[in-house]
Every structure is written in structure tokens, then in C-alpha cells.
Amino acid sequence: MKGFQSIRPEELTGNPFEMIGTRWMLIGAGNKEQHNMMTASWGTFGVLWFKPVVTVYVRPSRHTYGLLETNTLFTLSFFPETYREALNFCGSFSGRDVDKTRDCKLTALETDNGTICFAESDLIIECRKIYFHDLVPANFLDDGIEKNYHGSDYHRVYYGEITGIYRK
């Protein structure tokens, strides 16, 4: 992708707690013509089944959920702090109701594999879904977890094998 350098997962630098929990990210799915993205501050990086993986958490009520269900690939896009307002917007409005790419003045790109990402991001992680499961309240071992849910809109957890990492 023009303007980005491809790196191996072992070359990724940065504190994952800061990257996900503080900077936030956009989870993107679809292609340049039909896509959506949502802001997320929950997720993990790690190794599973001898593969470099990420996990992302998406509620079934989110528009991005449907695109994750129908596409094999998804991306995580990380942005400089100057895009905080855009990330707030993408976490507050549904792609069913607004054109987030247009309204946030973002430039949609496709990775070499054809999934959506954004030119303004400084780090893009492309992933291939390899597993999912739905959170089940009966399995919550901490009573405080339930306060994150209203109306039984429990997250689906997607596990994605990292297939590409691109940085500026």
C-alpha cells in the first residue's frame, strides 16, 4: 500500500495497553465500496495455535458486526491523536445512519487482499478470522462485568490471525 511499509508481527512495537486502551482503534470490515468501521478500546494481541493473533469484541447490535460476519478479513487501524474526534464520532454513530468515512474526512483504502483500511492511520493490522465465540453471562467470574451490558447485548469475540502489518 502506498505510503506504508509492511512489517512482520515480531517487528511491531508499542505498548498494547496504550495502543488499544488509550489510543483506541477502528475495526474495519468490508471493501472500498461497502464497508463500515467502529471505534474499539477492547482487544488483545498474542499467540494462539502458533499464530500471531488479535481478538476484538463486537456487539451484535453494531453495524460492523454484520460485515464481520460476512467477510473473512478485517483490519485494525490506529491513528495519531489528531484523529481523536473522528474516533469519537465512529464510536458514537452507526454506519447504518451516517457515512462515517465521508463525515470524518477519512480516505478508504483496500489492502492487497481487498479489505478496508484508512490512509490517515499510522498503523494498520490486517487479520483473517480464525475463530469466534459469544460471551456468556453465566461464565462471568467477576460480578462487576455485568455492568458493561445493558439489554443482553453481549459481545462476540473474533480471533484474527494477523496476515499483514503496515506502518507509516
Model description:
The chain has 168 residues and is an alpha+beta fold. The protein has a single domain, classed as Electron Transport, Fmn-binding Protein, Chain A (Pnp Oxidase, Chain A), CATH 2.30.110. Helices cover 17% and strands 39% of the residues. It is built from four helices and ten strands. The strands form two sheets. Strands 1, 2, 3, 4, 5, 6, 9 and 10 form an eight-stranded antiparallel beta sheet that branches. The radius of gyration is 15 Å and the shape is globular. The termini are close together.
Distance between the termini: 10 Å
- Gyration radius (Cα, Å) is 15 Å
Number of helical elements: 4
The total count of strands amounts to 10
Helix content: 10-25%
Q: What is the helix/strand order?
A: EHEEEEHEHHEEEE
Mean pLDDT: 95
Largest sheet: 8 strands, antiparallel
- Helix/strand-derived category reads alpha+beta
Any chance you could write out the topology, listing elements then pairs?
Elements lengths: L4 E3 L8 H8 L1 E6 L4 E6 L2 E6 L2 E8 L4 H8 L2 E6 L5 H9 L7 H4 L4 E3 L5 E3 L4 E12 L21 E12 L1
Antiparallel strand pairs: 1-10, 2-3, 2-6, 4-5, 5-10, 6-9, 7-8, 9-10
